[in-house]
């Protein structure tokens, strides 16, 4: 079948079928070879290419060989449509492996740099020189490849211009000239489309569509989800160095070598963090307990006093307990109980329900605080003071809500007692919780009292906006920029500004006309008592959400017909919408949206 010329366009599927046979015969190297041939043979059939990449990724994941597996999952997603039933699962595997590979590369990179530090200056220069030469050779190869593609492209454009310039008699019927101009020849169009797909694949209609690395052309910054700051910092360093010339890259590489004790310590800190991250990813995301144990144990062996010793030992205790290896489990258990008896890890070992009980207590405190705050809003100031005393007696000291209880009591004192009492309570809040947001609010009020020389015995004359009063009692919003998360398009407005039912009907009609291929739904609800929302859901990622945003915002007499000071619209991830609903901080999300989505 492969030799038959008429089956040429089906070679990718034939190679894939042969790979399946090789895999059944447990000839994995042959299966990998045939799958790679299938990928190379897939030109216009992106679905088959995605399936072949997926099979390669699954083979390497099962070995396990995580670095090529990560690359193949990524290639699979590039060719896979997001409505594929396994898309989310493949994406999750890709993300986990991507995090793992980045941390593994940090270990390799830092170990290599420390090895170079042990060499003589001449030996270092020789090694770095060979690295830069190899990089330059690869750049030259890519340059030649791009120049060849450019020449082919220019030749095609020239041929097209030549055909267009050929005169055609106005009396000559179209069919007679069909062979002259490309766009009068249906068979030529069909052939041209086929050749385009073979060469370029499926491309979105946009500027610089020929470039696979658009970041270099339009200067966009791709933000990835990160495991830790070390990964981000190292990636930024690598990206910066890659843009330098040969001489500057040599200097940059030599400059990265840790020569002082401080630099070696910083390098070791990166390795320590990367080993710990690998252990967690192996255990929690890839379910590879042996590799997880190996990462934690290697970390402990190389760096006995590392800062992750307790959590690493606790994970090893849990893993070996699950593996029924009581001897090793007891080694890590006994170390924690002997050396950190007051730690949460020791409490968890002695009481597996520790966190569950703490969570229940935390929920009780949160409910108690919420009712105390409501009592304050209802001007039940004496009850607020009484509940604060009960909280001190009944809940653990310095729990997460202690600062807020203290500030709430201070405000109640300000409403019912002397100005001196009020100032004393505010100063106590600042003294006891200097790093909490409530101390900032307390200081603002003290500064107001002193700056305006207020002498009255109550705080009734101090302008405290009760709508803003809750800000110190709630944690600041923590919005996360996750481009691969599910996104919604939301419209926010004060109640009474728009009629939700009318706008929802218009949006549904717009969706049916322009986005009938997507299973979109439109719902409405309330952010709080004053703000309502309409949500179009859901989009599989940020890019799809922003495509919808640009389309609907550009539609006349739809969302853009309202006063922008009152009616606002955003694209927002599911997690960030929950955060917005919790904090009610629309202004902060608006800033986040401009920075991460529009700029």
Walk me through what this model shows.
- With 599 residues, this protein is mainly α.
- Helices cover 65% and strands 5% of the residues.
- The protein is built from 25 helices and four strands.
- It has a four-stranded antiparallel sheet.
- A hairpin with a 4-residue loop joins strand 2 and strand 3 (531-539).
- It is globular and about 95 Å long.
**Helical element count?**
25
> H/E series, N to C?
HHHHHHHHHHHHHHHHHHHHHEHEEHEHH
Largest sheet: 4 strands, antiparallel
Measure the end-to-end span: 53 Å
- Kindly report the CATH topology of the domain at 357-473: Serine Threonine Protein Phosphatase 5, Tetratricopeptide repeat
- Mean pLDDT over the residues: 77
Label the overall shape. Answer: globular
Structural class: mainly alpha
Question: What are the low-pLDDT stretches, counting only 5+ consecutive residues below 50?
Answer: 168-228, 456-475
Question: Which CATH architecture of the domain at 357-473 is right?
Answer: Alpha Horseshoe
CATH class of the domain at 357-473: Mainly Alpha
């Amino acid at each position: 079948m492969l030799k038959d010329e008429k089956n040429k366009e089906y070679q990718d599927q034939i190679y894939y079928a042969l790979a399946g046979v090789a895999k059944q015969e447990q000839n994995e190297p042959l299966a990998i070879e045939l799958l790679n041939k299938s990928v190379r043979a897939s030109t216009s059939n992106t679905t088959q290419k995605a399936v072949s990449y997926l099979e390669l990724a699954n083979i390497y994941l099962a070995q396990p060989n995580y670095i090529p597996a990560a690359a193949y999952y990524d290639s699979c997603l590039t060719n896979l449509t997001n409505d594929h039933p396994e898309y989310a699962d493949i994406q999750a595997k890709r993300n986990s492996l991507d995090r793992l590979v980045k941390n593994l590369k940090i270990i390799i990179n830092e170990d290599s740099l420390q090895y170079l530090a042990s060499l003589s200056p001449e030996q270092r220069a020789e090694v770095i020189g060979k690295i830069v030469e190899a990089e330059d050779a690869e750049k030259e190869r890519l340059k030649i490849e791009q120049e060849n593609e450019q020449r082919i492209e220019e030749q095609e454009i020239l041929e097209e211009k030549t055909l267009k310039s050929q005169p055609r008699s106005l009396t000559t019927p179209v069919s007679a000239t069909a062979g002259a101009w490309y766009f009068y020849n249906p068979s030529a169009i069909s052939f041209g489309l086929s050749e385009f797909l073979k060469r370029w694949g499926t491309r979105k209609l946009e500027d610089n569509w020929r470039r696979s690395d658009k970041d270099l052309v339009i200067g966009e910054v791709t933000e990835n989800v990160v495991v830790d700051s070390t990964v981000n910092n190292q990636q930024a360093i690598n990206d910066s160095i890659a843009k330098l010339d040969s001489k500057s890259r040599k200097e940059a590489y030599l400059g990265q070598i840790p020569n002082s004790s401080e630099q070696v310590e910083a390098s070791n800190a990166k390795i320590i963090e990367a080993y710990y991250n690998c252990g967690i990813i192996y255990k929690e995301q890839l379910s590879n307990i042996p590799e997880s144990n190996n990462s934690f144990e290697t970390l402990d062996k190389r760096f006995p006093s590392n800062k992750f010793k307790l959590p690493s030992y606790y994970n090893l205790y849990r893993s070996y307990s699950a593996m029924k290896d009581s001897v090793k489990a007891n080694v890590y258990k006994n170390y924690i109980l002997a050396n950190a008896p007051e730690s949460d890890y020791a409490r968890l070992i002695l009481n597996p329900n520790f966190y569950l009980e703490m969570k229940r207590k935390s929920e009780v405190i949160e409910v108690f605080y919420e009712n105390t705050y409501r009592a304050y809003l209802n001007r039940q100031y004496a009850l607020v003071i009484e509940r604060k005393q009960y909280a001190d007696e009944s809940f653990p000291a310095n729990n997460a809500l202690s600062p807020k209880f203290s500030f709430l009591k201070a405000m109640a004192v300000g409403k019912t007692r002397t100005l001196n009492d009020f100032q004393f309570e505010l100063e106590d809040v600042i003294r006891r919780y200097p790093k909490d947001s409530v101390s900032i609010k307390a200081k603002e009020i003290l500064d107001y009292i002193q700056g305006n020389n207020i002498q009255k015995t109550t705080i009734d004359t101090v302008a405290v906006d009760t709508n803003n009063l809750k800000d110190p009692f709630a944690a600041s919003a923590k919005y996360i920029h996750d481009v691969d998360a599910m996104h919604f398009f939301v419209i926010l407005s004060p109640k009474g500004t728009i009629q939700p039912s009318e706008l929802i009907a218009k949006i549904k009609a717009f969706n049916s006309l322009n986005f009938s291929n997507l299973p979109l739904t439109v719902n409405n609800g309330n952010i709080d008592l004053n703000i309502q929302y309409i949500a179009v859901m859901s989009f599989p990622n940020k890019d799809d959400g922003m495509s919808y945003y640009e389309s609907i915002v550009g539609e006349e007499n739809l969302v853009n017909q309202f006063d922008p000071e009152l009616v606002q619209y955003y694209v927002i991830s599911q997690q960030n919408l929950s955060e917005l609903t919790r904090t009610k901080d629309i202004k902060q999300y608006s800033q986040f949206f401009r920075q991460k989505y529009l700029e």
